[in-house]
From TrEMBL:
It comes from Streptomyces gilvifuscus. This is NUDIX domain-containing protein. CDD domains: NUDIX_Hydrolase (cd02883). SUPFAM superfamilies: Nudix. Residues 90-240 form the Nudix hydrolase domain. InterPro entries: NUDIX_hydrolase-like_dom_sf (IPR015797), NUDIX_hydrolase_dom (IPR000086).
């Protein structure tokens, strides 16, 4: 399995075609299963918002041809990511999707995760872990688009047709996690803010915490320094790439981020 790089800390992987193959998750010893469960239960006790739902993990990653990326994936639950805190255990990287949501004024939306999430206070692009496909259904780029659409509808209140999302970049970062990043059509900043405010109000009305508690619009990676709290490791390189496209129309980025 391809190991995450340390220089630079986030890899932007060049590929124009993504192929997905389901693989079995690694077998765990009884000791590692017990240790995983202890870690998860401790995390859940400190954060009642965590839930052990079904997700997808990345089991392998290879690039047999310059523009072709093969991703092996397995059906796991969130508790399996607690294996990262178990010495000697095999910990699988996560597979997630998110969306670059630009504004008509040239800004790019980034959001802060609420205390109900696994990473309270962290700034990232709106999105989340890839959900398992149904029995007999494929995991492919269209399934990832649908995942991304569900995320931005739930988190921002923005309903974007899946075919309007363009594959924009693939990254490999912390713990080897694989991010598939889509770009959405521009929207007025005021409309985005109104929709997000409505999501917050709906959650408050039923006594729930939203997944996101704040959004801001940035135009360059330097804008991130004004934010309090941790940031997703992919934010700076992706925003830098976005800014170069915005400021220099002759600088072209293809659907997966090659310049």
């Amino acid at each position: 399995m391809t190991q995450p790089s340390t220089q630079p800390p986030v890899d932007v992987i060049e590929a124009t075609e993504l192929l997905f193959v389901e693989e079995p998750p690694p077998q765990l010893s009884v000791e590692h299963q017990a240790a995983r469960d202890r870690v998860w239960e401790a995390l859940a006790a400190n954060n009642p918002g965590l839930f052990d739902g079904p997700v997808v993990a990345c089991t392998s990653l290879s690039q047999p041809h310059p523009h072709e990326l093969h991703l092996g994936w397995a059906r796991v639950t969130y508790r399996d990511f607690a294996l990262r805190r178990v010495p000697g255990a095999t910990a699988l990287p996560s597979l997630f999707v998110d969306v670059l949501q630009p504004t008509d004024g040239g800004g790019l939306l980034i959001a802060r995760m609420s205390t109900a999430t696994a990473h309270p206070g962290r700034w990232h692009l709106p999105g989340g872990s890839v959900e398992q496909p149904g029995v007999g259904e494929p995991l492919d780029i269209e399934a990832l688009r649908r995942n991304a659409v569900r995320e931005i509808l739930e988190e921002l209140g923005i309903d974007t047709p899946p075919h309007d999302l363009t594959l924009w970049a693939v990254t490999r970062g912390d713990h080897g996690n694989i991010g598939v990043h889509f770009a959405a059509p521009s929207q007025p900043a005021a409309l985005i803010t109104d929709r997000f405010t409505a999501v917050l109000s709906t959650a408050a009305a039923v006594g729930q915490l939203p997944e996101l508690d704040r959004i801001v619009f940035v135009q360059a990676a330097a804008d991130l320094t004004a934010l309090d709290g941790p940031r997703a490791d992919y934010l700076e390189p992706l925003i830098d790439r976005y800014a170069r496209v915005l400021l220099n129309p002759r600088f072209h980025v293809n659907p997966t981020g090659r310049s």
